[in-house]
Amino acid sequence: NNVILEVKDLKMHFPIKIKTKSFISEKKYVKAVDGVSFSIHEGETLGLVGESGCGKSTTGKMIVKLLEPTEGSIRFRGKDVFKTQGEESKLLRKEVQIIFQDPYSSLDPRFTVGRTISEPLVVHKIGDEKTRKERAIKLMNDVGLMGEYFDRYPHEFSGGQRQRIGVARALALNPSLIVCDEPVSALDVSIQAQILNLMQELQAKYHLTYLFISHNLSVVKHICDRIAVMYLGKIVEIANKKDLFDNPKHPYTQALLSAIPIPDPEIIVEQEMLEGDVPSPVDPPSGCRFHTRCKNVMDICKKQEPKDLNMGEDHIVACHLYDNKED
Ligand code: SF4
Ligand code: MG
């Protein structure tokens, strides 16, 4: 499998000022992303899952260059995206696109559907008005929107249709990789499956690679090949979907999985829900960041940060429970 994207030791620390009681302001950092590494293979969907505030959206924004990392590297087809310049950098901007969570706020209300979808072509000076219109109508057709909507405005559409517009816009430049940041989380459950199915169809048709960000493991189960679980700025487990669901190793992954509602009311399963709030990413817990909420916590967990351990083919976990049990 060809690696299309390689993320290495990525960090994003946002500076903040904290005012103390004595009116001295102290400079601290929100460690939103704190040493994240993973790769994505061409044509696959990698899920990036965790609770809100764990750094998954920040990771996505760095990949599409909306944010510049504090440290670490992102390589697209072997090229460091923050070091490319000129034509190479322009090409990269076309190749990697993003779909945002909120189809209401991510579309400019002053732009028609047609203008919204062809905007990336205008920005990149591709084609003339006529060819751009043809391309936009083709894309509308691809995402299941009628060409007649070309001159209408986003507010005339439902959330699901707006997200179709967002998908069409992301496709305009013929990208290889799309960062999908909670693309269905703002939609009604009944509409979610339609959009997910559309995304899968488009993936096959245009040979797309997805980084699929979600707080919801049941959404990810539908669409992903592999899944990375993130907690407080770090990835705690990565595995292929089957391994992650059948044989989760990290106590956090196990807790997330047990929080998935069981659709069959006949099946009664004891659920261990996650307790406690997510600690602050300004002063994350020492050692293993999950130790304040972990049911398996040991002494070593508070003192030493767990290393990434290899638990089998393509299955990595960072947890002291498996120290010396690598295979
Ligand atoms: Fe729990 Fe310790 Fe594993 Fe962290 S390292 S998840 S605290 S057992
Ligand atoms: Mg988010």
Automatic annotation (TrEMBL):
Q: Which GO terms describe its molecular function?
A: ATP binding
All copies of the ABC transporter domain together span 18-257
Q: Which SUPFAM superfamilies match?
A: P-loop containing nucleoside triphosphate hydrolases
Against Pfam families, the record matches this protein to: ABC_tran (PF00005), oligo_HPY (PF08352)
Q: Which domain of life is it from?
A: Bacteria
Q: Which InterPro entries match?
A: AAA+_ATPase (IPR003593), ABC_transp_ATP-bind (IPR050319), ABC_transporter-like_ATP-bd (IPR003439), ABC_transporter-like_CS (IPR017871), Oligopep_ABC_C (IPR013563), P-loop_NTPase (IPR027417)
Q: What UniProt keywords apply to this chain's record, in alphabetical order?
A: ATP-binding, Nucleotide-binding, Transport
What PANTHER family does its record include? Answer: ABC TRANSPORTER, ATP-BINDING PROTEIN, TRANSPORT ATP-BINDING PROTEIN
Q: What is this protein's record name?
A: Dipeptide ABC transporter ATP-binding protein
Species of provenance = Lutispora saccharofermentans
